[in-house]
Design a protein that fits this description.
globular; 11 helices; mainly alpha; single chain
């Protein structure tokens, strides 16, 4: 009975974490796109604000004894902090340059890239069925991008860089939590200010500080409220990413994330009037079919693994 209650509590915590990530991830896409389209707020500065608000949120959590910080050597997390910067900056640039549909579908490619990284560098094995499901996923993304009437070459470069850095980042998050024996909050608590420092040095070289479009420019009160709200939601996104990857796996996080893109795509067409051609629709359906097949095979393999464990004497 105690075991069942423990399993139920554990599952409910995972479900709650997935729900927080679902809502915050969808909201952050729409709010950031709105900020870019209607206010033209600079991308790297917005990312810096996200990092600072994330650190302040974790500082408050630490003061409320929600978690206990653990001393970490900066050299152990410097690559993670740099990849965190690239992950957020490139995905935001992709969102800024592409339609929401292309942006969202490009992110789906994170799963194949993670599988390649884990296979080549971490010697992790995946079944043939799992590998084959990546074919319709990849084909669907290519179809959507090719037939996007708002195709943007620079946007696709940003999307490609975002996928590569995001994949590295998510694999490293899980590996570092295991290596350093820290939880999601402890790791992010030290990583967020380091990432903020990196961006603080870079922002003056790439974005104006004053005048039109600068961080200290003449922004309206509503624009500042939206930026602050974006920062708070980014804190929830970052925290839930760490928590989900730490308690499940990078691939599980990404496969869950693929289901979010359906709602995000619909919102993009409704809120920003993004066009959708027939071939793009076929690409989306192709990607969804690959996602569903992957999920089915993955769950079947997990159940098979559990049954083998229970049958052992």
């Amino acid at each position: 009975m105690a075991t069942r209650l423990s399993d139920l509590f554990g599952n409910s915590r995972i479900i709650a974490g997935l729900l927080v990530n679902l809502l915050s991830s969808i909201c952050i896409v729409f709010i950031n796109k709105w900020i870019y389209v209607h206010y033209g707020f600079p991308n790297m500065t917005l990312t810096l604000i996200h990092f600072v608000v994330t650190w302040l949120g974790l500082f408050m959590c630490q003061k409320m004894d929600i978690f206990a910080p653990k001393s970490l050597r900066p050299s152990k997390i410097i690559l993670l902090a740099l990849s965190f910067c690239g992950f957020v900056v490139f995905t935001n640039l992709s969102l800024q340059s592409n339609t929401i549909g292309t942006y969202q579908l490009a992110k789906v490619m994170t799963t194949p890239v993670i599988i390649v990284i884990q296979t080549m560098y971490y010697r992790k094995t995946f079944s043939t069925k799992i590998k084959l499901t990546l074919v319709p996923i990849t084909l669907g993304v290519i179809l959507n991008s090719y037939y996007d009437v708002k195709f943007n070459l620079l946007g696709m470069i940003f999307a490609t860089l975002g996928v590569f850095v995001t994949s590295l980042y998510q694999v490293w998050v899980g590996a570092k939590q295991h290596e350093l024996q820290v939880n999601s909050m402890q790791l992010l608590y030290y990583q967020a200010p380091m990432s903020s420092a990196f961006l603080l040095v870079l922002v003056p070289f790439f974005e104006p500080l004053t005048g039109e479009g600068g961080i200290f420019g003449p922004w309206s009160f509503l624009a500042l409220v939206m930026v602050l709200m974006s920062g708070v939601i980014a804190f929830l996104v970052n925290l839930s990413i760490y928590w989900i990857i730490g308690n499940t796996s990078p691939v599980t996080y990404n496969m869950f994330g693929h289901f979010k893109f359906c709602i995000t795509l619909l919102g993009g067409y409704v809120l920003f009037q993004d066009p959708l051609s027939l071939n793009q629709g076929l690409g989306i359906l192709c990607t969804i079919s690959g996602i569903l097949a992957y999920t089915h095979f993955k769950l079947a393999e997990q159940e098979e693994g559990k049954s083998r464990l229970t049958q052992r004497p």
